[in-house]
Amino acid sequence: MNGNSSETLEGNIQEQTNILIEYWNNIDWQHIFFSTVIGIIQIIIVLILYLLAKKIGNRLIKGSFNRQKNRAENPVRVNTVERIIVNIYNAVLVFLAMFSVLEIIGVPVGSLIAGAGVIGLAFSLGAQDFVSDIVNGFMIMMEGQIDIGDQVVIDGTWGTVADTNLKTTQVKGFDGSIYYIPNRKIEMICNRSKGNMRADVHIRLFPDTDTEKVRSIIRQVNKEKFPDYPTIVGEPNIIVHPMENGQASLRVDIFTKPGHEWNIQWDFFEYYISRLSQEGIKLPANTLDITPRAK
């Protein structure tokens, strides 16, 4: 009985071994070798074409935009559009390269895309925020509402635009913080870099102060200091008006290029106070507060 079982087991092992040997011998190793080599060569060609297309395409895009920058009134806007076009172009190249490689190695890309469509439909409700970001970001770009480097106030967030794309807008605060704002959250933009800005310098005066003398001193300071500030444009306005507490207020409106209004406001406040004191003009102890210097 044991002898018959042993013979049966040996027979099964021999039969399975013969099947494996026959399967191994029937494999067309030459075909597999050449197919693998051809596939590797095709993948290498795809990668070379991808790198060439990326290098040549990016160079052509940047060259085209460089010519636009030389003629554009707003080079920053051209830089913003250039970055978006380059990112879209590179994303399309990556997709095509991946599609080609998957086709070469035999992955059914068509079935994957169809499956992805079904999955995408299932997740469409969850992607509403993403779509809103893209749509709102596209409108912001098309209308030229902001550019990289602009000083803005976006829904209460003050700072400089560090980056902007179709999904998010990055704003760098005056303290160095970076705010990542989803485009769908942007409801109001105050762009302080689209035209000349106004630096308002306020100084309180006693009601019996000789305002004509004060105006003369202010004009003299402006004459001396304005050449040191090439960002100042136009002539300032000097206005004196009464205050509710019985005092008077001197206001000097200095117009500047975008982004320079805060520093000029602070500097000229110091210049005016110092010169008025030197000329014997007495000032109230509590002067007006002004916006602190941007860091």
TrEMBL record:
In terms of SUPFAM superfamilies, this protein maps to: Mechanosensitive channel protein MscS (YggB), C-terminal domain, Mechanosensitive channel protein MscS (YggB), transmembrane region, Sm-like ribonucleoproteins
Q: What is this protein called?
A: Small conductance mechanosensitive channel
- A molecular function (GO) term: mechanosensitive monoatomic ion channel activity
Family of this protein = Belongs to the MscS (TC 1.A.23) family.
Q: What is its main location?
A: membrane
Q: Which GO terms describe its cellular component?
A: plasma membrane
Under the heading Pfam families, the entry gives: MS_channel_1st, MS_channel_2nd
Domain of life assignment: Bacteria
State which residue ranges cross the membrane. 32-53, 84-106, 112-131
Q: Does the keyword Membrane apply?
A: yes
Segments forming domain Mechanosensitive ion channel transmembrane helices 2/3? 89-128
Q: Which PANTHER family match?
A: MODERATE CONDUCTANCE MECHANOSENSITIVE CHANNEL YBIO
Question: Which ranges carry the Mechanosensitive ion channel MscS domain?
Answer: 129-193
Q: Which UniProt keywords apply?
A: Cell membrane, Membrane, Transmembrane, Transmembrane helix
